[in-house]
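Case study 2.
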Amino acid sequence: MKDMRNKRKRRNCYHRLRARYIEAQRARRGNPAASAATQLFAIFAVVIGRAPLLPAAPVCPRYSPPQLSPAAAHRTAMARRMGVPVRYLDLVLSQGQVPYAVLFNHIRQGGVLRRDAMIELRKRIPEAALDWLDYVEKWDRWSELLRCHVAKEQEDLTDVRVLKSTVRWLEHLKDNVPFQPGTTLETAGGDTDPQKPKT
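Prediction:
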């Protein structure tokens, strides 16, 4: 009788498949440290995921302006009917018009005060000077306008100065002298000779 133990068995594809399967199972079970790290990471993610990361930001209420009192609403409506800025309503009701001193002071201050003062100044100055006033406002020539008013002087003299400035401006336009920013109407007249050197 032959010894069967010594006889080598032939290996086939089944044996190869079974060996791969056993190696794959060993690899899955192989690293207990990686498995513990994965479990700790999962626990950490669950704990942190339940807690809010940042506190909720407080919701700012939208700004709404305070409601006008009935008296303020009445003043605003009256000023609108009269075509006067609200800040000048009391002056118009008491004096009939806004004094030049107040208007020119507000023009000096600029901003919203200047805008309201220009609205009223257009009603006060002579009609012939309205084009000059448009020129002053367009080119920001406020110094020329402010020179027309002298404090504590009669208001008729302010009208005369405004008309004189208008006449100088019209003569300047007739001479067709090119406008140079930074010059006044007195220095930019047609009587200056550009060929003469300035001393």
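Residues 79 and 86 are 5 Å apart (CA to CA).
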